[in-house]
Specification:
globular, Arc Repressor Mutant, subunit A, DNA-binding, three-stranded antiparallel beta sheet, homodimer
Chain lengths: 110, 110
DNA sequence: TGAAAGGTTCGAAATAATTCGAACAATGGA
DNA sequence: TCCATTGTTCGAATTATTTCGAACCTTTCA
């Protein structure tokens, strides 16, 4: 049987502030993080502002979030379950996630 | 006479979350912001981790912080006075600056 | 006035990040 | 078993960011 590949995730102690800030500094990635505040979603349920973006691009956005430690990406059948690493982020950078997620951003970067 | 150029600064209402996050996502720029928490400094008093970086590079780092609205850059004699735009940032993105500045970051991005 | 101090801007080169098609892999059903 | 679903990864092209020297601008002070 074997199973879907386990992707690498940084440990809590390895999280880097600047790397997390960078991951969240893209409007599309920030929007993804926001979609996960109410609980995990399968990748297909996470929407981008442009629905026509190829899956490889979407996968790359997820990778930036995952390697920064913002999001966890686990196999879930043939899908992928995305979840916010809220506990790790709160422990490592208290108040940061709340501030970022609760901020309103009428004029995004790009 | 005339006077030193007044550089453009975004208004409070124009501040963009992702742009601010991007500005702070670089270790050198984050370090500069941290040097300003206790009050304004002249540019020459803001130190980079590498003291040999050319002034044009340093000026560019400041520009990214300024155009993001993180820092104010005003003429001060022949020098430039840098200050954190704490009030604007706090008003626009409550808790964000505190979270970023108080976080410890043992493993910087680059 | 002349020149040094302290910075900004411009342009070009080097680096880094993003985008996306194609190839590949595992899962779940028919 | 076969094949559609749901992704990841690789490589190449595009685009964005960074770096830095050179030119330039004010201010200060001798």
């Amino acid at each position: 049987m074997s199973s879907s590949p386990d992707l690498p995730h940084p440990e809590r102690s390895e999280l880097s502030l600047t790397t997390v800030l960078f991951a969240l500094s893209d409007p599309e990635r920030l929007a993804i993080a926001r979609q996960l505040v109410d609980g995990p979603l399968d990748m297909a349920e996470c929407h981008l502002s442009n629905p026509d973006v190829p899956k490889s691009t979407k996968s790359h956005l997820m990778k930036v979030l995952r390697t920064a430690g913002v999001v966890r990406n686990e196999a879930n059948g043939r899908a992928r379950r995305l979840s916010l690493r809220r506990e790790d982020l709160d422990a490592r950078f208290p108040g940061l996630l709340d501030a970022v997620l609760s901020a309103d951003d009428p004029k995004p970067k790009a």
